[in-house]
Amino acid sequence: MSKETHRSVSIAAPSLDDREIERVSSVLESGRLAAGETVQAFEESFAAYCETDHAVATTNGTAALHTALEAAGVGPGDTVVTTPFSFVASANAIRLAGAEPVFADIDHETYSLDPHAVEATIRERDGDVDALLVVHLYGLPAAMAHLREIATRYDLEVIEDACQAHGARFDGKPVGALGTVGCFSFYPTKNMTTAEGGMVVTDDEEIAERARRFIDHGRTGSYEHANLGHNYRMTNVAAAIGEIQLGKLPEFNETRRANARRLTERLEGLPVELPVEPPGRRHVYNQFTIRTQRRDELREYLSEQGIDSAIYYPEPIHRQPAYDHVSTNAPVAERTAREVLSLPVHPGLSEADVDAVGRAVRSAFEVTGDG
Ligand SMILES: *Cc1c(COP(=O)(O)O)cnc(C)c1O
Question: Which residue of 41, 157, 185, 214 could cross-link 131, Cys pair, CB 3.0 to 4.6 Å?
Answer without folding.
Answer: 157
